[in-house]
Specification:
heterodimer, A: mainly alpha, MetI-like fold, 2 domains, 14 helices, globular, B: mainly alpha, two-stranded antiparallel sheet
């Protein structure tokens, strides 16, 4: 079990079943993504004529231009999604860093109770709170607002994020903090110059999860955003396939899927070690 | 660009040996020069934004949900106290219980399938060897795509005009003519399940892989010297030792499935004949189509109770018996 296979030809040859299985599975897992990518660049006629081909014979951007001009225009929806994700990521990082710092380094009354209440949110399914959240947003005047849904996304990222940031900061030796305090550093400079640089992997994990959650969330966006100008990409996807007046333009839907999907794939591929790291820090504790 | 064991950055678990000593509980308490009252004040001020959000967007809605469930609460118009009437109506509401039952059926099939696939996948990719990092990344890639996006992708794939599933079935000899994937409740359910397995099996795979890698490798040597077979080692040593990760993967999988909405909303729209309506779906329809917010809140309370109960049952069943 502990033996490590070396990348020699003998190792490759003895592992033929392993690589055959792996290659087969890779094809299955990658197929839907590659297929829709190919389909979005095919012409309407080729898409219907030869749906199985994975390389378009003629490259066309017509499906993207149709998407660009549908509804309030794809750029509006993309911008809305970018705004919501940006607010969610920034606020989640700031709030969970401060809270993680508090839990890792300070003593205050009810500390464990408060930590438990924050974690308790993991047990409560977000959809079951939709009705009262709707009333809360109405009361504070943030219904039908991108800021409103971003703040809801932040709150539902907090249990995981605070947990990750607390662990990241607890792992930093207290001698480093004491040395800085000896030199006269205040509470915030300790955070800024001593803790944050070391806790950066934790920040990356928190930011990555916050981005994926807010970019992909659908139900809250559907309920809380009533104005077509404010829709995010998942709501646009719904509207694109329920256009009963003019019939559904499936080409535009293909382009919409690609546009919603690509940022997630890129961000994940670039930052995947932080994603898995975050999962592991949750799994190990 | 790919997942390898060395590459994984675990927050709170830095590899630097000097930091290991600080992992102890004591490090949570910073002595510092400040007084204990100053400490408490600084701590609470740092925590204030977090607390504000939790109170406004979690504690208050949670309390309101329970409060609203005792009221007749239309979107517009008079709110009136109705005591337990919503719960009485809910108790006899066949459509609601059918949606809860359907959600449980979906969650059970999905969880069994995901575990049947995630375990072999985790075993396949747990050991570091050439090419394994690419496999992990590709199996995990669909997890990063949103549920609404993945569901829309499936709507395209099974579309009779532009989709690829029908022609694929025909060329594999599985079907003669066009395939109607959503014709019956069963085939609609399986269409959704195949999509969700594709989308989320990588998540369970990574968790189980972590569990496998945390099993110390010397116990395998000892077991083999004692003459235990491969399957026997896996069943009586590996599985019990990774109980905690398995429990986590199971609880996340079940609670995720019990909250299913997007996938059915996009792919089946609850059909055919409302046979694929999930619990969250019926809460959504009650609250935001019929605008019976009080009744929807009562449904939410019941769903929450079911979820908490399921969580406790799984936790107790998989808890480490020694501790």
């Amino acid at each position: 079990m502990a033996r490590i296979a070396k990348p020699s030809t003998t190792a490759l040859r003895t592992n033929i079943p392993f690589y055959m299985t792996g290659a087969g599975l890779i094809c299955i897992f990658a197929f839907p993504v590659i297929w829709v990518l190919a389909a979005s660049f095919k012409t309407e006629a080729e898409g219907r004529g030869s749906p199985l081909s994975l390389i378009p014979s003629v490259f066309t951007l017509s499906k993207y231009t149709e998407l660009w001009n549908s509804g309030a225009g794809a750029p509006t929806y993309i911008l809305n999604s970018v705004i919501v994700s940006a607010i969610t990521v920034c606020v989640t990082v700031i709030v969970s860093t401060l809270a993680g710092y508090a839990f890792a380094r300070f003593r205050f009354p009810l500390k464990n109770t408060i930590f438990f209440i924050i974690l308790m949110k993991l047990m409560v399914p977000f959809p079951s709170l939709l009705t009262p959240l709707f009333m809360v947003l109405q009361t504070i005047g943030l219904n039908n607002s991108l800021v409103g849904i971003a703040l809801i996304y932040v709150t539902f990222q907090l249990p995981f994020s605070v947990f990750v940031m607390r662990n990241a900061m607890e792992a930093i030796p207290k001698e480093m903090v004491e040395a800085a305090e000896m030199d006269g550093a205040g509470v915030l400079s300790v955070l800024r110059y001593v803790l944050l640089p070391i806790a950066l992997p934790g920040v990356a994990t928190v930011a990555l999860f916050a981005f994926l959650a807010s970019w992909n969330e659908f139900l809250a966006a559907l309920i809380f955003l009533s104005d077509g100008e404010k829709f995010t990409l998942p709501v646009m996807l719904l509207n694109a396939q329920t256009n009963f007046d003019a019939g559904v333009n499936w080409g535009a839907v293909e382009a919409g899927v690609v546009i919603s999907m690509i940022p997630c794939l890129i961000v994940f591929l670039v930052l995947q070690k932080y994603y898995v790291g975050g999962l592991m820090s949750g799994a190990v504790k | 660009m790919a997942l390898s064991r060395q590459d994984i950055a675990v927050p709170g678990n830095p590899a630097h040996p000097a930091r290991q000593s600080a992992l102890s509980r004591k490090s949570a308490r910073s002595p510092g020069r400040s007084s204990s009252r100053g400490q408490a004040l600084a701590g609470l001020v740092l925590l204030a934004p977090c607390l504000l959000l939790v109170v406004v967007f979690f504690i208050i809605p949670l309390a309101m949900m329970i409060w609203m469930s005792f009221h007749e609460w239309p979107l517009l118009g008079e709110v009136s106290f109705s005591g337990l009437r919503n719960y009485g109506e809910l108790w006899a509401d066949k459509r609601f219980w059918r949606s809860v039952w359907f959600t449980m059926k979906y969650a059970t099939i999905l969880t069994v399938l995901i575990f049947l696939l995630a375990f072999p996948l985790a075993l396949l990719v747990q050991r570091q060897r050439p090419g394994v990092t690419v496999m992990r990344a590709v199996f995990f890639l669909p997890v990063s795509i949103g549920m609404a996006t993945a569901a829309t992708l499936w709507v395209l794939i099974i579309n009779p005009d532009v989709g690829v599933a029908g022609p694929l079935f025909q060329s594999l000899g599985l079907a003669d003519g066009p395939v109607q994937f959503l014709r019956s409740a069963n085939s609609a359910l399986w269409t959704v399940i195949v999509m969700v397995v594709w989308k989320s099996v990588g998540f369970s795979m990574i968790l189980l892989m972590t569990g496998l890698q945390n099993v110390p490798s010397d116990i395998y040597e000892a077991a083999r010297i004692d003459g235990a077979g491969r399957f026997r080692i896996f069943r009586s040593m590996t599985l019990p030792l990774m109980r905690k990760t398995t429990a986590l993967a199971l609880i996340l999988c079940v609670s995720g499935a019990m909250q299913a909405f997007d996938q059915f909303f996009f792919i089946t729209q609850g059909g055919p004949r409302n046979q694929t309506v999930t619990a969250v779906y019926s809460i959504y329809v009650t609250s935001f189509s019929s605008y019976r917010l009080g009744y929807g809140a009562a449904m939410s309370v019941v769903l929450l109770a079911i979820l908490v109960l399921l969580g406790i049952v799984q936790y107790v069943a998989l808890r480490n018996k020694e501790t």
